[in-house]
Amino acid sequence: MQENLQWHQCKTADLIAQNVCERILAIAQDAIAEYGKFKFVLAGGKTPEKVYCLLSQSDADWSKWFIYHGDERCLPVDDVNRNSVMATNAFLNVVAIPKNQIFDIPTELGIEESAAAYCSIVNAAMPFDLVLLGMGEDGHVASLFPNHVHDENAFIHSIYHSPKPPAERVTLSTKALSNTQNLFFLIQGANKREALKQWRDGEDLPVANVNALRHLVVFLDDAAADIDCVLP
Predict the structure, then answer these.
(1) Which domains, ranges and CATH numbers included, belong to the chain?
(2) pTM higher than 0.70, yes or no?
(3) Residues 69, 84: Cα–Cα separation, whole Å
């Protein structure tokens, strides 16, 4: 298990979202004060969507935010099942982040073309200031699934056989996701308990292979937590 891992338990997903939103704004403020920009990698899913809605109602120096995505599904550009569409509707269309500072994964171009295009963007952006990730019932993160073998030195992977539809996706690699100052896992629901147990028991899951340069924090609700891991 990651040595710098911290656990933070909240009673509900709404409280996770509130806590994470506050921390994101603080990290952004510090990054902007230090070097003039905040580089933020978004996750898909319901819990991040709650965070994005809260961010959309917040005050920040949006002109200094740079937005990236951890993964994307190979679907038409306006498909509601794309992570970028969810983030745009919940957050990015509401705040004043310059459009040329929002970097969607262009999977509408095709899997290899979009992977190649996004690799150069990621390479230029790293290290990130903050990466958000969820975790699936099988311990997958972004579109990195158990038992899939990838080039450890690559920043981007083309996924052709996702166990969850759609089968084709583009994802940041473990190496790219770990090249961040801060990494937050957002985990909710009793259906995540078994994967959390396997993670804590040291099994080789994708979630166990992603790290951070500084702070790695897991936010989980009471339904997901099968043991008491509340931080002081």
Answers:
(1) 5-221 (3.40.50.1360)
(2) yes
(3) 7
